[in-house]
Amino acid sequence: MNGRTDWFAHLVLCLGALLFLLPIWLVISGSTLDPAAIARGELSLVPRLSGLGVYASVLTQGSPGAGPVWRMLMVSAGMALAIAFGKIIISVLSAYAVAFFRFPFRMTAFWIIFITLMLPVEVRIIPTYTVMSNLGLINTFPGLTVPLIASATATLLFRQTFLAVPDELFEAARMDGAGPWRFLRDILLPVSAANIAALFVILFVYGWNQYLWPLLVATDPKLDTIVIGIVKMIGTETQTEWNRVMATAVLALLPPVMVVMLMQHWFVKGLTEGDK
To answer: What is the pTM of this model?
Structure first.
C-alpha cells in the first residue's frame, strides 16, 4: 500500500511539473521562431537554432516601444536587491526593538505594524505616490524602492524568532560586556540566518515582479523594469514581434530562477526550521 501511494504521489508530482514546464518550454521554443508564424498560431515544440540570435538582439537593441533589455534587467535587479536588503534590515531592527527593549507603547507600535498587514497595496498607493511626489522622488531610483522596503510580515517573523531566544542569554551577554549591537550581530543574526536567506529569496522575487508601483512612479524609459518593458513590447496584434517578447520573457525568468537555485538549501531550511 505504501509503495502504491508513493507511486501515485510521484505521478501527480510529474504531471504538475509537466503542466508548469510546458508553457515555459513553449515560450523558449517560440522565441526562436518567425514572428509571422507565431502570429498565425503556428507554435512549434522544437526550437529553431537559427533563431537564437534574437536573445543577443533584444539584450542590446530591445524592441519597438522598449529600450535595451540589459538596462531593464539592471533596473529590475537593483530594485529587487534594494527591496530585499532594505526589508530585511528594517525588519530585523524593528523586531529586535520590540522583542528585547522595554519602552513606552512598545506593544502599541508592534500592533500598528501588524495591522498594516490588512491594508492592501492598492489602498496605500495614492497617499504613497503623493508623499513621493512631495519629496521630489518621482522618476528616481529611490522612488522605486523606498516605499516598498517596509515589511510587517518580515518584522513579525523575526520577532517570533527572537522571542525564542532565552532572556537569560541576553542578560548573560550584557554581563559579559556585550552591548545591544554586539548581541544582535554575534547571537541573533546567526540564529536567524536561515530565516534571512528564505526571506531574501521571497523578497527578491517580490521586488523583481513589481508592476503597479513602477508603472506609476517611473515614467522615464531609463527606469523601466523588465516587467514594464515586456508590456511595452506588446503593441497591436499585427505589430508585435512575439519572438522578441518571448525572448525577453525568458531572460526575465533567469535571475529569480538563479537566486532560488543558488539559495535552495537555505530557503527550505528557513521555511522548515524557522520556529526553532
So the answer is: 0.85
